[in-house]
Structure formats: C-alpha cells, structure tokens
Write a structure and sequence with these properties.
The chain is built from 14 helices and 22 strands. It is α+β, with helices and mostly antiparallel strands. The strands form 5 sheets. The protein has a 6-stranded mixed sheet, sandwiched between helices. Strands 4-1-8-7 form a 4-stranded antiparallel sheet, with helices on one face. A hairpin with a 7-residue loop joins strand 2 (35-42) and strand 3. Helix 7 (315-332) crosses helix 13 (490-498).
C-alpha cells in the first residue's frame, strides 16, 4: 500500500481534527461560559474564509473537549489556512452576533499535521493582551476502518447528589490515546431526576471509540448535571469493546460495571461504589471499503490509454498528470503493473501475443514507452474512444481472476473531433455491467460542444436501461492547469479523478453480492 503521512489517512490525504480549549474567559455572571467553536478554511487563491462547521455547545465549562470532529483534505504543497472562532452561547440562535465572542486562532493545516497536537493562544482580534485561554487542535489518531457500533446503557443505584432531589445523570465516554492521554468521544443526554437512568442508544465509529482496537480500555464517567455551577462527579468505570460484544453475543444478563468515585475510595476505606452501569445493546455495523476487498485478495488493475497526438503536443503535461495520479493508483494497486491500451505500434506489441495490451511495471515505464514509441511511430493514428472502450471491456471479460476490478484511464485532446463523437451508445452500455470504471481526462480548453459530448458519455443509460451508467466519468484538465500550461495542484487533480472510484467499486460489489473475505475484527461478530 502507499505510504501514509503521519496521521493522514487514505489516498486523498484526509485528516480529521478534534478541538479542545483551556482556561477560556468567563463571560457569564452566575456560571461558567457555554463555549462552542466555529471552524473556517481559506482555499488556495481565495481571499475569504468559508465556514466548515461548528462544534456542539458545551454547557458551563471553561476547559471544554469538543466531540464533533472536522475532516479536511490535506495538500502538502499548499498553504491551507484555518481560522477557529470561539463563542459563549447566549441563545439558540444560529446568528453569531447573538453570542459573546471569546476570541480566535489562526493556523495552517500543514502546521497541525506537522505537530499532530497544536496549541495556540486565543487572540481577541489583536485588541487585548489579556490571557484569553488556549486552543488545542489534535489529529485524530485513527485507522481507515469505517465500522460503526451502536451502544445503549442503563444505570442503577447511583449516588444521590442533589440535596432536594435525585441526580440528573449523564455519561461521557473517553478513548485512551497512544500517549495515554484521554479524548472524550461521546456525551449522552441528561436524564432528569433519577438514580436509575436509561440513556438513548447512540452510534459511533469504532475508530473514534477505541482506535479500532477492541481490546483497548474505554473509560466512562458518570456526572450529575447542575443548572448552575459545575456538574458533580459520580464515578467512573472501564471496559473494552470485546467485553460488550461478548455480553451481547451470549445474551448475558446481570453483567454490570461498578462506578467508582476515585476521591471517595481513597478517603473512605468502607466505600464500595457509586452505582452500577449495565450494557443493554452492542451492535456492530460493517462499513466496507475498497481497501477491505483489496486486503482480502481482490485486485484493482489500471488500463491506460493516451491519445498519441495529445502526448506529442502536450508531453510535459501528460507526464505531470500521470505522475500526479500515480500515488493514488499505487494506493489501490501496490503491484504497480499497468496495461497500455489503444493505438497499436510495433514496440507496444507483446512478443508472446499479437495484442497491444502491453504490461508495464511502474508509471515510468508507461511514460518511457509513450516517449520512445508512440511519439515517434503512432502519431497521426486515430484515437477512437469506442474502440478503446471495447478493447478494455474485452480485457475485463477475458480476465480469469474474477476478483479483479479494472479502471480505464483515458487522456485525450479535446481538439480531436473524432475522439468523443466515436463513443457510441452501445460501446458505453456494454461496460455498464462489468467491473470496470472509465475515466476520461480531457486536455485543453473545452468548447461547449465538447462538454456536451462528454456529458452524454456520463449520462448514457446502462445496458439494463434502469439507470445511467455511473461508472463513466469525465474530468476537464483545464481547471487544474495554470497559465504556464503546468498543473497547479496534482493532489487536487488526483482527488477529482478518483473521487467516484470507491462508489463505483462498492456499487459493483454490492450489486453482485460480493463480500470481502476478511477476518472478523471484533470478538465473535
């Protein structure tokens, strides 16, 4: 598999950020502030920040750990600016002017990725030197598994914390990180006036709950909510996901965990517990990805077809495009073996076959072949999309390993009028029921007629006439090319090119009832 940047997951370098704050300014007269954050980003070449999202509001807390996370696509070659504004919530209004402004923090995504845990003083628009607190931005230390778990709990015999009534309990769940620090990953609702609460079920990614390690301890704190002042600590317990799964699997009853108040335990030798927590539900929902299939033996093979005339007139740009796409290709196919399809020439012929389906090891060999052979011998040959589609479909149909999925990458010049017009309806329809995605990358400025032709390819009905063939995609390269005729961002191009591949892949697997042959990760489920 392709190497990953530290803390960065997937072929498109996606990072997930979690926010905390310490020592915030108290803006409320009779209680602590109720903080929330608003996250903004400013893309390259943009002059304005755009809101990404908002955290939840944390009631009466000057040291909040926010549960909501924020996902960003990380491009190492770009300055991706981030701004975080902190507010004290004064109402339920969505208008920020209705809340008290506490300050803001500026940084870049590169700084966060480089440090993994970035701490910045909160600034009050540069108008005050007074300490406004600290913002902490962390990269989620999680894997690429997307499985979910649904949990539900009840408690009984909780300690009575209120003088004139019972407790108003809620739970907080904390993950233990590699550095032994704790991260709050979930907070339940408050159940009013009871010592025997039952909380609503909740669903959470397993990677957030326990970093995809079912034997990692999960810490649960129980609190008594107070309308004014700080909430009261009732106690804590711990368990693992595998323990919960075992309880669910055996339909065990009476399995409880004791809430222990660590302060009371240390002071009172006769202290026993502050109540009991009982698991009610533990249900695992598998969320498969292409990587699950690949790890279990499924192969992804890339077919490459470049218009010889396009390579001749834009050789440098073609090299930049393939070089930019290569990391993503290697992410899905670590064999680095690609096939060239398209106009035939003497050097492209395999000595053991009359076919032009030449196998190349690595993208450099693909480029070498086009430089040495196609550019000199195949220039002027017709590049007919319909013929290339049929050739790719034949390769797929003849593949003896039925566990393969194919991706056809075509790179062609918009000025070649016969290229797009030749892609008749039948040639597109024939591939709709095959494990094949087709991605056509157009070079040069797109005339309206060319855009219309490309749109017609993507919207061609499938062979069963039930829906459009959503495995044919077109990418206009002009959006990623600067005035100097070079790519402005290879990473953004790669994301655009392969953005729909996971859906294509998983859609075909689902339609054909194919499941990955992977080992079960969590207990007996």
């Amino acid at each position: 598999m392709a190497a990953k940047v530290n803390g960065v997951n997937g072929p498109f370098n996606e990072v997930e950020l979690r926010l905390s704050a310490r020592n915030l300014q108290d803006k409320d007269l009779f209680s602590d502030s109720d903080p929330f954050c608003v996250v903004y980003t400013k893309e390259q070449c943009s002059t304005e920040f755009v809101e990404v999202g908002r955290t939840e509001r944390v009631s009466k807390n000057l040291n909040p750990d926010f549960i909501k996370t924020f996902k960003f696509e990380y491009y190492p070659d770009e300055e991706q600016e981030i701004k975080i504004e902190v507010y004290d919530a004064d109402s339920t209004s969505e208008k920020l002017s209705k809340h008290d402004y506490l300050g803001e923090v500026y940084c870049t995504l590169k700084e966060i990725v480089g440090s993994r845990r970035l701490e910045r003083p909160i600034d009050y628009k540069g108008r005050s030197k007074r300490d406004r607190g600290t913002m902490i931005i962390c990269i989620e230390d999680v894997g690429d598994c997307e499985d979910l778990v649904t949990l539900q709990f009840q408690a009984n015999a909780l300690d009575k914390m209120d003088i004139f009534g019972k407790s108003d309990p809620y739970l907080t769940f904390h993950r233990i990180n590699r550095d032994k620090s704790l991260t709050m990953v979930h907070r339940t609702e408050v159940v009013k006036k009871t010592l025997n609460p039952t909380w609503h079920p909740f669903t959470i990614p397993i990677k957030s709950l326990c970093c995809n390690d079912p034997n990692k301890k999960i810490i649960v704190n129980c609190w008594d909510w107070n309308k004014t002042g700080s909430d009261d600590y009732i106690g804590e317990c711990e368990f693992t996901l595998n323990e919960l799964i075992e309880i669910e699997k055996t339909d065990s009853t009476g399995n409880t965990y004791k809430f222990i108040d660590l302060f009371k335990r240390d002071k009172d030798k006769k202290y026993e517990n502050s109540g009991f927590l009982t698991p009610i539900t533990c249900f695992i929902e598998k969320k498969h990805s292409p990587i699950d299939f690949i790890r279990s033996g499924c192969k992804v093979q890339f077919l490459i077809a470049i218009n010889p005339n396009t390579f001749t007139s834009n050789d440098c740009l073609c090299v930049e495009v393939l070089t930019a796409l290569n990391p993503c290709m290697e992410h899905y196919d670590d064999s680095k073996t690609y096939r060239i399809v398209g106009p035939e020439s003497e050097t492209l012929k395999d000595e053991s076959s009359e076919s032009s389906r030449w196998r190349c090891t690595g993208i450099e060999e693909v480029l070498k072949i086009y430089r040495e052979d196609v550019q000199s011998n195949a220039v002027g040959q017709s590049f007919v999309v319909a013929d290339i589609l049929r050739e790719a479909q034949q390769i797929v149909a003849e593949e003896p390993d039925k566990g393969c999925y194919f991706v056809l990458l075509m790179l062609t010049d918009n000025t070649d009028a016969t290229t797009l017009a030749s892609a008749d309806k039948a040639s597109v329809q024939n591939g709709s029921n095959l494990p094949l995605s087709t991605i056509l990358i157009s070079v040069g400025e797109c005339e309206p007629s060319v855009r219309q032709e490309m749109a017609s390819l993507e919207n061609t009905p499938s062979a069963k006439e039930e829906a459009t063939n959503d495995k044919v995609h077109c990418v206009h390269l002009e959006r990623f090319v600067g005035l100097d005729n070079h790519l402005t961002s290879g990473a953004r191009l790669a994301k655009e090119v392969f953005a729909k591949f996971p859906d294509d892949f998983m859609g075909w697997m689902s339609q054909n009832n194919v499941m990955p042959k992977r080992l079960q990760q969590y207990g007996h489920v």
